[in-house]
Specification:
- The complex is a heterodimer of chains A (598) and B (249).
- By secondary structure, chain A is α+β, with helices and mostly antiparallel strands.
- Helices cover 55% and strands 11% of the residues of chain A.
- In chain A, helix 1 crosses helix 9 and helix 16 packs antiparallel against helix 18.
- Chain B contains six helices and eleven strands.
- With 249 residues, chain B is of the alpha/beta class.
- In chain B, a hairpin with a 3-residue loop joins strand 7 and strand 8.
- Classes of the chains: A alpha+beta (598), B alpha/beta (249).
Chain lengths: 598, 249
């Protein structure tokens, strides 16, 4: 079994770098302290290690299949869910009055990171239920909360999100599923949905689908999309399960990874008898759905990071034990004993590369998750609004930069194991296969690049972006006070300056209508943006190491972090100037290529 | 009935233990510590007895440094009612622990003391037995099943030859073995509740116990590395090696 995380790193990020104990000044979190957070994370870790990790491989080897039209899963998945729900994680963020523990979102994220790192597929069902219930909580009416949300939080029902259709995945404006109003108040749903994770199973007595559909006569495009609650079985007034709601499993998709969670092609209303219940206002569905989608994007980043982290730890242990080759310093003397491969420069490089990606991205993820808490509950004037905007700005980066780089980390982990890494006897190939989904689902990297450069950065005249640069600047100022961080402070100032320059130029080009050229390199822009923000996170960690005088770090931890920071600046961030040059001149080599020239 | 459960803060069972460079002990700086796993089983058993309606209160006690408070909070978060920390930075040997526990028993008057059969750091396996002797109570050690009767407790013990069941008259001392139960996880609502549960802090001197060490540790070393195996040519060679080199026949 693989190790999930370096607990010292997680504690360092949460308590020292992000200083989450400061939450005690928030009224909502005033009961919480480090002891509560640590105990909560410990319970998460124990359940993750005992109940989720233990069937990570088995779930991969025993894909869900159909027996008499019902989905058959290995029993361990349900048992793991029972522990997760029983310990109170599903409703951890809810009010005390609703049986929650008002746990900060950043701690929930840290806990869910442990579950997802232990078993990404088995946790997937729970993550979706959480997001689904949270959406109904935000936009549903009281009746919908009572009938659908409460049973999800109790673990009786589970939830999904149904956006894509066979002909329209990324392009939601083109969805065709119809909603026809009836005199009884509900809508009749008619259509098909594709790629629905957890779309069917027998883990819970009911499944609540959140379905995007068009009401008859609605405007074209995304402005005509509404959101509906569509249960697998209808729920009666008294909360009891009623008739089958004509939601049919038309097929299970057979995937490269994530094999423990069903992925479904669903048909709604094949018999003309599928009831849907409108959430909020008609034609506002996409906005509501993005409440769940944005959380899902953070969760995707999280799962990419944790799969990368697992691969890093696994390959690190392997490299320390695997004896192969001789030291160059000994002149490759065949009579000298073979050395552990961690002594070879290129293996070290691959370990440093992985570490700089996964630990840097984890810092960014947790920083973003903390923004959610600040956005909702900060007592400081102006901080709520500012944090919400910063979170919207960095969500595509957390999602996509992490997905791209932590997948690369898995590739390097596999490489360190060599031939063994390519076999199914070792975990690296499964981690890689599981991680391969992350740059795809909940908005591909291409889509996230367009969202970042086309929407988030230019929003409000670039206000959130400039605020992010200010935050980066303040870390640079602190870093300048430390002799051995001055170089990195200077480099980060230079690189973030380049990003600022190029962003202003591209915003200008877009407002002049030159959309095609301004946006044609947007995934490269996202990459540069990610390198700057993750580099910032490394500098923030380095500063913390120097500032935290009360609890000195052990030498290995201190040097390990500092050196990884150095690696990231010296080897990874050096790409920024070249990339910014391409972006700045709005190079159009790519769009100039004509289809028939291929 | 009250149940007293002593718990010890030990190096976490997942940690790869490293011997200090000067061979005086094992490295504890920056190492994850947690509740002795056998003590977790003892806490769980007490909780089950209480949940079955056979006990009113569960008191957990730990003897150790200030950080042992975290271990007590874990027990409170599992469901124990209140806690006593006997604070000392000394390394306390089983006899001194038993003496302190004896004094606490006199104050709290529990009818049952459930301990882990041993701590995974020093593997002493002495405290429960010493406590029973000092109290002149009956003891049921290495329990794999505990059944309460009228003023008695039946303890099924894991012994070399199989299982042995003894019937003890209460009050009694029971020590928990691995198969007694599977301890629960501290749930999130219980972690919050645990914050409000009382935790008293005392010192060994409050109980008039001198914790000075009676034993001297000469040296702590890592076990010898396992030598690589060899393939023997024939049975005769195997027998010779088993007799002359391994010394097992």
């Amino acid at each position: 079994m693989h190790a999930i995380i370096d607990r010292k790193d997680l504690d360092f990020l949460l308590f020292d770098v992000l200083k989450i104990e400061e939450f005690s000044s928030y009224e909502r979190y005033s009961d919480h302290d480090r002891e509560v957070y640590t105990a909560t994370i410990q319970t998460a870790y124990d359940i993750a290690a005992d109940k989720f990790l233990t069937h990570y491989v088995k779930a991969d080897q025993n894909e869900p299949h159909l027996i008499d039209g019902k989905v058959k899963l290995i029993p361990e998945i349900g048992e793991a869910h029972e522990e997760y729900i029983g310990a109170g994680f599903l409703s951890a963020g809810r009010d005390y009055d609703d049986d929650g523990t008002q746990l900060p979102f950043v701690i929930q994220t840290a806990c869910n990171a442990l579950f997802t790192g232990a078993n990404v597929s088995s946790f997937g069902y729970l993550g979706l239920s959480q997001g689904n219930a949270s959406l109904i909580d935000a936009y549903g009416d009281d009746e919908q909360k009572r009938l659908y949300m409460e049973p999800i939080y109790d673990g009786l029902y589970s939830g999904t999100m149904c956006l894509s259709e066979p002909q329209a995945g990324s392009s939601l404006a083109d969805i065709k599923t119809k909603a026809i109003p009836t005199e009884e108040g509900h809508y009749k749903i008619d259509g098909a949905k594709m790629w629905i994770s957890a779309g069917d199973h027998e883990l819970t007595e009911n499944i609540i689908h959140l379905v995007l559909a068009r009401i008859d006569g609605a405007p074209e495009g995304s402005k005509g999309i509404s959101l509906f609650i569509v249960p697998k079985y209808r729920v009666q007034e008294n909360g009891e399960i009623g008739d089958f709601n004509d939601v049919t499993l038309a097929g299970l998709n057979h995937k490269m990874g994530h094999r423990g969670i069903t992925n479904c092609f669903l048909k709604f209303g094949e018999q003309g008898d599928c009831h849907g219940y409108l959430v909020g206002e008609a034609n506002s569905g996409l906005r509501y759905m993005f409440h769940m989608m944005n959380h899902a994007r953070i969760a995707v980043g999280c799962s990419a990071i944790m799969l990368g982290y697992a691969g890093y730890l696994y390959s690190l242990e392997y490299a320390k034990e695997r004896l192969q080759g001789r030291a160059l310093s000994k002149g490759k003397d065949p009579s000298s004993p073979p050395v552990p491969i961690i002594k070879h420069a290129d293996v070290k490089r691959m370990l440093l590369q992985q570490r700089s990606y996964v630990q840097g991205a984890l810092a960014l993820l947790l920083w973003a998750a903390k923004l959610e808490d600040q956005a909702k509950y900060s007592p400081m004037p102006g901080e709520q609004k500012k944090s919400a905007k910063l979170l919207a700005l960095v969500t595509p980066v957390v999602k996509s930069w992490s997905s791209e780089y932590c997948l690369k980390a898995n590739e390097l982990a596999l490489q360190i194991l060599g031939g063994y890494g390519y076999t199914r006897e070792y975990i690296c190939e499964q981690l890689y296969r599981d991680n391969r989904l992350n740059p795809i689902h909940e908005g591909t990297t291409g889509i996230q690049g367009l969202t970042l450069l086309g929407n988030q950065v230019p929003a409000d005249g670039g206000k959130a972006f400039f605020e992010l640069l200010e935050e980066i600047q303040s870390t640079i100022h602190t870093a300048e006070q430390h002799e051995n961080l001055k170089l990195y402070a200077q480099l980060l100032a230079e690189y973030s300056g380049l990003l600022k320059e190029v962003s202003i130029k591209l915003i200008g080009a877009m407002s002049n209508g030159d959309l095609e050229k301004a946006l044609c390199n947007s995934s490269l822009y996202l990459d540069s943006f990610g390198l700057v923000t993750v580099g910032w996170m490394w500098l923030k960690q380095a500063v913390t190491l120097h500032e935290q005088k009360s609890a000195p770090y052990d030498e290995d931890f201190f040097n390990g972090k500092l050196h990884t920071c150095a690696y990231f600046f010296n080897y990874e961030m050096v790409r920024i100037p070249t990339q910014c040059e391409i972006l700045s001149k709005m190079d159009h080599t790519i769009i100039d290529m004509q289809e028939n020239w291929f | 009935m009250k149940i007293l459960v002593p718990v010890k803060r030990v190096i976490d069972y997942n940690v790869k233990v490293r011997v200090k460079a000067d061979n005086t002990g094992v490295e504890l700086a920056n190492v994850k510590m947690s509740m002795n796993p056998f003590d977790e089983i003892a806490v769980e058993e007490a909780l089950r007895i209480k949940e079955a309606g056979n006990a009113e209160e569960i008191i957990v006690v730990s003897i150790g440094p200030a950080q042992a408070q975290e271990t007590l909070r874990t027990a409170l978060a599992m469901g124990a009612d209140r806690a006593i920390l006997v604070k000392t930075d000394d390394l306390v040997e089983p006899l001194a622990v038993a003496k302190i526990l004896k004094a606490i028993v006199a104050e709290e008057t529990p009818e049952l003391v459930i301990l882990g059969k041993q701590a995974i750091d020093d593997d002493c396996n002495q405290t429960g037995q010493m406590l029973a002797a000092l109290l002149e109570w009956p003891q049921g050690t290495f329990a794999s099943e505990v059944k309460l009767g009228e003023g008695t407790v039946n303890v099924t013990r894991e012994v070399d030859g199989g299982l042995e069941t003894v019937k003890l008259t209460l009050p009694a001392v029971v020590t928990a073995d691995l198969r007694l139960n599977e301890p629960r996880y501290a749930s999130l609502p219980n972690i919050m509740k645990a914050k409000r549960k009382p935790l008293d802090t005392k010192e060994p001197s409050d109980y008039g116990v001198d914790t000075a060490r009676r034993l001297t540790t000469l040296k702590v070393e890592e076990p010898a590395k396992r030598a690589s195996g060899i393939i023997v040519e024939n049975i005769a060679e195997l027998v010779t090696k088993l007799r002359d080199e391994a010394g097992v026949i």
